[in-house]
């Protein structure tokens, strides 16, 4: 019973990590930035948006990742 609950929690945290990572903005201009014509150009809104929403997403990603690792270790011990 406990193992099943841990498996469900691991699945939920795994989905949460994936969603947080996919929602994050790509910072590197790189090849795709040059192809699309937006190579390094940012507006005032883009620069200030990183201070609020992007920071929260990074923090949530780290927290959910730690929860995922802890749950995986606990399930390994059971």
Give a description of the structure.
The N and C termini lie close together (about 10 Å). The protein is built from three helices and no strands. The protein is mostly helical. About 80% of the residues lie in helices and about 0% in strands. The mean pLDDT is about 80. The chain is rod-shaped and about 50 Å long.
Number of helices in the DSSP assignment: 3
Unreliable sequence segments: none
| Alpha carbon gyration radius | 17 Å
Principal-axes shape call? rod-shaped
Helix content: over 70%
Note the beta-strand portion: under 5%
Structural class: mainly alpha
Quick rundown:
With 78 residues, the protein is mainly α. It has helices at 2-23, 30-36, 44-77.
Q: Layout of SSEs?
A:
Blueprint: H1 2-23, H2 30-36, H3 44-77
Helix pairs in contact: 1-3
């Amino acid at each position: 019973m406990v193992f099943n609950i841990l498996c469900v929690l691991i699945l939920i945290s795994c989905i949460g990590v994936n969603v947080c990572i996919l929602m994050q903005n790509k910072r590197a201009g790189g090849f795709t930035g040059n192809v699309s014509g937006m190579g390094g150009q940012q507006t005032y809104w883009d620069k200030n948006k990183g201070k609020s929403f992007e920071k929260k997403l990074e923090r949530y990603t780290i927290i959910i990742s730690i929860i995922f690792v802890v749950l995986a270790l606990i399930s390994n011990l059971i």
